[in-house]
Predict the structure.
Amino acid sequence: MFAPLFNTVEKRPEFLEAAVSCVSFLDKHGYATDGKLFYTVTREGRPLRMRRYVYSEAFASIAHAAYQFWNTGRI
């Protein structure tokens, strides 16, 4: 959500900081060792539930794509 805001609405530093924070948290705590995405984690990153929903995995993909676009200017 924050990377698209930064990319398309307004280049506000707080949007970029939030995008970097969210993608970093997702990369650090969102994936199990087998590469599957956790459905829920605590604020500290402890896994709570492993479910396979296309919905949550699609949003993770969207977040990474928007972040990649900000980072390189292309997807």
About this structure: DSSP finds three helices and two strands in the chain.
